[in-house]
Amino acid sequence: MDRIIEDALAAAHRYEAAARTRFSGLLLRDGRVDAATLEAAQSAAHGFAWLCTSVAGLEALAKWAGTLELHGLLDGHCRDIRHLGFAELLARLVHGLPLSQGETLRPTEMGLAAEAAQLATDPAVAPFLNDPELPARRARVADGIGEAIAPDADETDPALAEMKRQLRRFAADKIDPHAQRWHNEDALIPIAVVEDLAAMGVFGLTIPEENGGLGLGKIAMCATSEELSRAHLATGSLATRSEIAGELVRLGGTDAQRAHWLPRIADGTCLPTAVFTEPDTGSDLGSIRTRAVRDGDVWRITGAKTWITHAARADLMTVLARTDPASRDHRGLSMFLAPKPRGTPDDPFPVAGLSGSEIGTLGYRGMQEFELSFDGFAVPADGLLGGVAGEGFRQLMATFESARIQTAARAVGVAEAAALAATAYARQRRQFGKPILAFPRVHAKIASMAVETTIARCLTRAAARAKDSGRRCDVEAGMAKLFAARAAWAAADDCVQIHGGNGYALEYSASRLLADARILNIFEGAAEIQAQVIVRGLLERRN
Fold first, then answer.
1. CB of 384 within 8 A of CB of 408?
2. Does the annotation count 524 as an active-site position?
3. Which of 155, 371, 524, 528 is catalytic?
4. Are residues 445 and 475 in contact, defined by beta-carbon separation less than 8 angstroms?
């Protein structure tokens, strides 16, 4: 690692430590974050989450460059990306953290004005903040983008590199030519594509080999999600439901449930859907009202669910329902493995006790979203996950890290797609006698996309490695999802801007990327929820 990078990272860590001391004193009561104080200081506390996420991004970026250097792959393009990443994130730490497009939190609002001023004048940081070569670096980064925005350090593993090549060829052949039409027609992804992905093992990536899967780790899952989402977000999201269901069964199921369901999920003969959210609950899962009552040899489920993806085509629903009618929080919830017949466009829910209506969406098209109504829907008695009631919330929480890591990977795919589309258009679109890529505000936008997407990938892979090692990684997963979702939205927005009026036209992928990117800041926990998770995890885990 270059000395200037090492010293700048050390300065950022000192700033983070000062912030941790400040917010520990403000929010902790007997080692736990006080809910009322956190709510009162929400903006500042969420700024602390973004501050720590930014420092984690610097660390992940430095490690990415270090891995490339170790393998002789750290060229000028990668050095410029690293330098621009440090310049941008250090500037945010010093001057203000963009929580969203309309919210920038200044150090003074976090009680860190003096510490930020000290960081700005640190001899290792000042050269990044005052570098006159930044415009030239941006131009070089934009000009250096090829088939990918930057090397993936994990592709130094030959097996992963080959897997990505196969996925990219598949996407170029089976997804890219059709994705815009699927989006514009709001059409289901053809079942032939689903079957092809199943044959490639996409649905069983992380399911153990003894249960019919490939037994790979979360790094492979991230690479797969990125490559497919780069072509089409919904196609890249097909495996998300399999990942969630597989993890629920693997971690919380009985031996019989694992033996029955995992091979079917892995080979794609069983398409699952996650049935958790209700109209008035959102992220407040403890308020779920859908109930399940034992009735002889079945459970009867009654209630309403919403935003259920791929519900009609699914063969298995993982349903969160209340089995203790006296409970008023998460402790009365149970998880059910509820089989159902696969629907058709003419008869989406051909089973007694279950009906649904489609929710039209701005983007993320290809699987369809539904509101579901359960009216005494029967689930076999052995469908209670783990065979024990009241464990549903805990079982679901065990899957959230993986789900958020995968969502971050999907966001990386969308962000890279936007960067590549913008670059290609800027190279061929000419104005005033030259390609628009030559104009500083155009190539600066593209350079920013490349830098933020690289950082997002680095954070996502860091979370995946933590998960693969068996460590708790709720903070790392939350940081990856938080940063990557915003990077995808910024990249998609700038992609439309670079396309100008054509970016708003339905024939160009830029319009689809913008519509798809917007959901990433919402599902699997909105950005505000991620910040809340990060604050609690950072302060409580180490105190």
1. no
2. yes
3. 524
4. no
